[in-house]
## 1
Amino acid sequence: MPRASVREQIVDAAFEQFHRHGYNACGVKLITDSAGVPKGSFYNHFESKEALALVVMDRYGETRHLDKLADASKPPLVRLRGHFEALGQDIEDFGYERGCVYGNFSTEAADHIPAIREGVREALDLWTNAITATIREAQEDGSLTSAQEAEILARFLVNAWEGAIVGERAAKDGSSFATFFTVAFEVVLR
Amino acid sequence: MPRASVREQIVDAAFEQFHRHGYNACGVKLITDSAGVPKGSFYNHFESKEALALVVMDRYGETRHLDKLADASKPPLVRLRGHFEALGQDIEDFGYERGCVYGNFSTEAADHIPAIREGVREALDLWTNAITATIREAQEDGSLTSAQEAEILARFLVNAWEGAIVGERAAKDGSSFATFFTVAFEVVLR
């Protein structure tokens, strides 16, 4: 098997290091050291740390279990729960560390770096749209009786999930995720 | 009037700089430069940047409008809405930048610095307890009919607010706060 290209090694390392340390604490040298490539090689492949962060966000998006929302073999609210359960399991597997790349980048970098702010906004919108479609299905098949607009419920849930991560990183005991599932599925999605 | 002590100047500057730049991007030199004091004076007053961050978190707590929750002249749900409106106004006044110090520190530093993690956890618990008491009052006077445990609703709302800030820092258009108010007060607190 051919060895991963230098570019690929850098993206893999950046995915790990940005997620673990956040945007500001993760410099180009940490990324290239972690990738096992010379620091000088970085700028052959990326214009800036910021440009690499956008590539990492795209790759992170592919791991966000959006496929679970589209699985037509299950009822919409079952899919939605499975989607959030999978997201929660990923974070539990990291000991409630690392959080969500979108939330991390929004918190750390959106104020100061327009391209990252725009990347996060687009990623959250894409995610919200997928949840909106699922909620709309549940409204159409009658499993959700709430007359509240699907898009408003979806935006609220995406944000509430990001906030549950904030709470969980402080408590690291599962309490904020448990609270999310109770209120989201027993109160909001009724 | 006596001049603010060096310690006080450092705390004032740190409050501003941590809030604006986050934990990792804000070093001791940025704080002392911003305070207009020699970098060397820092360690006469604080053992570490981490120790100063805990002082800043305490001071931030005093600005979180918890007094609005205790104002017995208004019905509990009116107070609760006023509390979140005041928090939102503070963030809007900063152009949807800076976010919440608790959320920022949880996201950036809780994984790596146990004292900060514990400080954020305590601050979120204190805030949750104040909201729990307000929700319980609303359940007792019948203005809230939800039988869901007050503490679960309170924890959920605190996290949902933190997440609304994550969304707002990316969109900076008020949409996440508007969504929070709609779902929190029309759906969750019914």
## 2
Amino acid sequence: MPANLPTVTSSPSAATGAKRGRPGYDQQSVLRVAVDVFNKHGYEATSMGILAETLGISKSAIYHHVPSKEELLRLALEEALGGLETVLTLDGATSGAADARLEYVLRGTIAVLVERLPFVTLLLRLRGNTAMEREALARRRAFDRTITALVSAAQQDGTLRTDIAPGTVTRLLFGTINSIVEWYKPGGPLTSQKLADDVISMAFAGLRK
Amino acid sequence: MPANLPTVTSSPSAATGAKRGRPGYDQQSVLRVAVDVFNKHGYEATSMGILAETLGISKSAIYHHVPSKEELLRLALEEALGGLETVLTLDGATSGAADARLEYVLRGTIAVLVERLPFVTLLLRLRGNTAMEREALARRRAFDRTITALVSAAQQDGTLRTDIAPGTVTRLLFGTINSIVEWYKPGGPLTSQKLADDVISMAFAGLRK
């Protein structure tokens, strides 16, 4: 299993923790492993039994940390959506010219995506099969609408081209940004700062010299 | 099932076709329905039994049209990859300035994507679980390398900005283009021609006025 397992004391002498989940795991580390497994096999195809096996603990030990698989999904989606929604509340997103606010929000989105890569990956792969998934997708759409409103405002200000519909601009921008989860390797030669610069340069100024 | 079923004579008097698949289906229409089901439920999760049920014919009737589920996948991927690879062989892709060839190939890619939407969707969702899937992904990577070479040539010609690595440009361009399968509705108000214009305008000239 290539899931990113946290370092876990597997010594059988660590008996004190046996009743309350194995030492080395807390809710956050269980969540992190669960999200990797969800991303690899799909949320629906992953049972609590598979999670327990991957974690090397019993199902009841998982239930010590979280009441259900659904709660793991809820926590994971909150990491992604909460991070993205926070960007919209920051000064750079709420004051200044519309085009500068748009750039600020896009840079913030890329930062959240890179910092919370597995969580955002899970969010982007949701198909809306349950009420919770549909609620998450509705929050994602609300986020997108905020971007579309910023694009529209910047077009009215005369700073952005007006021949592309604001909704199309948003879809193309998020097509570019969301695809980053499919190929970006944090810690590699391309820093998240340069990645954000590249996305903003291509989107705002274009590839042509 | 919201799969795009072809019009099928369901009259029980249509007995002549019973032995050789039901009238109204040929290999191409079986393939089309199969690809919709693969895209909805995942290739691996789809059995020949599920396909037969969706088509309203027996499994043996499917086997009259195709020898295996794997062959359906192979045919579907050929529709997508064959279409994309053909673009690279056309005059506009092989002669002229590198930036013009790049634009030509990107427009051709968008056209194939829109015309063969379910097939390209299937290709883009592959995870490389079988030898055939890995072979398809290798052909996709070869296609991407051709684009990277064109970007690199255009940078050397001085027509494209040089501060973004050619490989990153390709990833961002295909992030934008591939995401079209997630939201584009053929036959809607946004024509495929205008969509291609919008993608090319944003990527080459940028959003800023």
## 3
Amino acid sequence: MAMITGEVLIGGGASSGGAPGIRATNPKTGALLEPIFTFADEADVDRAARLAWDAFDSFRDSDLEIRARFLEGVAAAIEGLGETLIDRAEAETGLSRRRLTIERNRTTNQLRLFAEVVRAGEWLDLRIDPPLPDRAPFPRPDLRLRQIGVGPVAVFGASNFPLAFSVAGGDTAAAFAAGCPVIVKGHPAHPGTGELVGHAIQAAVADAGLPAGVFALLNGAVDTGTALVRHPMIKSVGFTGSRGAGLALMAIAAARPEPIPVHAEMSSINPVFILPVALRERTEQIARSFVDSMALDGGQYCTNPGLVYAVAGPDLEAFLSHVEAALALKHAEAMLTPGIHQAFDRGVGALASHPDVQILARGLDGDDANATAPAIFLTDAARFEADEALGHEVFGASSLIVRCETIDAMLEAAERMEGQLTATLQLDAGDIAEARRLLPVLERRVGRILANGWPTGVEVSHAMVHGGPYPATADSRFTSVGTLSIRRFLRPVSYQNLPQELLPAVLRDDALPRLVDGVRQG
Amino acid sequence: MAMITGEVLIGGGASSGGAPGIRATNPKTGALLEPIFTFADEADVDRAARLAWDAFDSFRDSDLEIRARFLEGVAAAIEGLGETLIDRAEAETGLSRRRLTIERNRTTNQLRLFAEVVRAGEWLDLRIDPPLPDRAPFPRPDLRLRQIGVGPVAVFGASNFPLAFSVAGGDTAAAFAAGCPVIVKGHPAHPGTGELVGHAIQAAVADAGLPAGVFALLNGAVDTGTALVRHPMIKSVGFTGSRGAGLALMAIAAARPEPIPVHAEMSSINPVFILPVALRERTEQIARSFVDSMALDGGQYCTNPGLVYAVAGPDLEAFLSHVEAALALKHAEAMLTPGIHQAFDRGVGALASHPDVQILARGLDGDDANATAPAIFLTDAARFEADEALGHEVFGASSLIVRCETIDAMLEAAERMEGQLTATLQLDAGDIAEARRLLPVLERRVGRILANGWPTGVEVSHAMVHGGPYPATADSRFTSVGTLSIRRFLRPVSYQNLPQELLPAVLRDDALPRLVDGVRQG
């Protein structure tokens, strides 16, 4: 039976760390959970980083099959935790067992998908330019390129995905797949869940015969995270959370003697554009599915549809009535932490008291602690544009509907919006011409464009982009979900005229896919 | 006949800009060249950026064949400038006609290579995950991914490659290939050369029927560059130059309301490790080829071998004698600008007067202005480690040889070195075991590893990496030379359940290579 001890996990073992730290809170009841989790001090951070650095060369040089099996081993070890994991996650997050079970499957599927990615070898980006000894005026040398891991990665998980975006979540899976050791700064909202998963990873590391330094899990306060990002042996950062915390990490990373990238996925309000024919033809269906999406799991998704644009008129009025009716049936749900709940109350309160915003609809109160009824607000395009704050994310079940006088006003609003993870089009066949006008505007501002769906529910696959221009993320050229997310943690190295016996194995044999003189082979 | 007017080039035309700016200097004679180049003011920057932004959607949406022919058109138009271009470049840079002719061919080959890249479509990174409507608990949507350009790119060319790293150099070619408009901040060391090439690009833009806003060339002082990097419609920066200027641009870009990446290729001393057997067996050949490489074109290459490690002993003493003899035959050459020459004199002077550094060899003085005899210095590993400044780049024909007591001391030195563009191994068959120990250390610190060659001479091909960990570049995950350099200016966008008629053409048909459910096709 897996035990939760509250210790920091470094070097394949557990130790008591520095000062006693925190206990987890059951957000539904407000009760404190055992045990106390100790905080890693600077010496712990240094030890974990040095072990990660020492493990890096052998881990990145490990056989691809061993690395793939390691990822599968992590998945199996997480499954081996059984209901213990779900029990603890439920107690720490207030999320439903159904949701957590789905999230666990997503997490293990994600690890197994990255195992396939490692084996397939596309990520190595192998390129071979054969020598041209007789070329004038200079011969061309033998040039071979592969991608290698950037080095040890610090991972800051998310509050709202205690499994899929946390200790063994997408950042960790992608970094491991790239051959990078990982040090996780544990999220204080679910430290016990994190520790259980941390033990599973430690077991998989040992089973795979990898150096223990490839993984560590440190709980701590802000200074622990700061020390980690500042450590010279950390070479990249994966972060999912608030804009404030993301910007703080970016500033710390940029101020290092050797600046490093921070992949911060920060904030997004995921605008939805309901085009006129769809609004008319599917008024109620769109209203109901919108409310279902915005209120799902307390609205605690980074892809929550927080902003809806539609053109004024009787169809919109009917839509608003349906929204009101649908929201009236939604209960408040306990939010992930008291702090998140307080921030939600502040955000909803600010909208409710805003002179240019109208409260369109509220859901029902609930019995849990840390729960506030979901809320949908209404404003118009001119008022929305006049106050930048109306475009800021309110994390939780809160959305703002923006009434546009004309479709052109909707297009202008799209041109002015900040970078987003997603944009959604609700459209019917008669809306295609307007959608075609919107599309290039959205492409410039978001990472994923959806039609006739809702942005919650992020597929972990090859063609997914969970990213987007700032402030949605720190760097729009990367995704934090899907197989392409491995690219965050890779850098290319070129080998010129190296003797055969010194070349990396993947560049010697021809088993893996590669570009030869620009032409794909294998 | 192409005319040099000194105007700023915006929107397909030329205009007089703001205040009169600079004239170019012939570094060999110190003579000022006609005409006066006017400086772009903030209004010019704004106009160029807005035109670029307005051109962006149609440029990035242009047919791949049109974009490829445009790149070929730029190459042909540069060739059309004939000797006029070489004459002006020779007058402005002091570089030899032979070198400039080779560089022009490299530049036009580079443009044509990117045309092939555009056509081949690998850069689009097309990925299709077909829908799984019956999957439980949720169906999988239709997901399709492509890469698009990031937006208008500001390019800051290099002093030392007036063609290949300047107005129509690698950054511009890669950005155009990615579908990004380009605004070049002209380099003050070769403004006339830049203007000639700028006219060639303008002609090619018009011939291809592309919007004139896809290209602009602005001369100016520091404030012009600052205004450009600060402009909200600029989305990326390509820079080649000094560490100080690169860091300044990075700071400006990071402080924007919307931070943007700066691809700064800044400084590198390109360490060479001469392993013991090679040192013994090829003493004179390595010494002579080293001196040829370090003194080539006044040593004004970012891949100049500025640092040489070798193990103490009689072989090294013989090597030093050969180096001394070889350098004694090398003449001083006019450097690119008086400023670069002064900086070289300062750098060489600091080494010459350093208490822990010995002057090993000097070349001959020359007749040109702005020329100082090349210099090679000697120190030992402990002294080198004791003063970080000894590891800083001296741009020009200056190198430092570091004598290591043992091969282990050489390895330790490698572990401590900063990020570099390249590292070179001089090795024979008997050195393989030592090289194997060095290799992982070098992989962590450099972008390209060479055996038995010299780092000057950067092939423009698929497997080239001209990049490396900080401070060699701002982001080790990218290269600024070779076809992979297009990735700097691309970001992924995912399309979920989009109606067929709204999908980008490249994601609709199946003519281009793509990953379908993770399996490569086409």
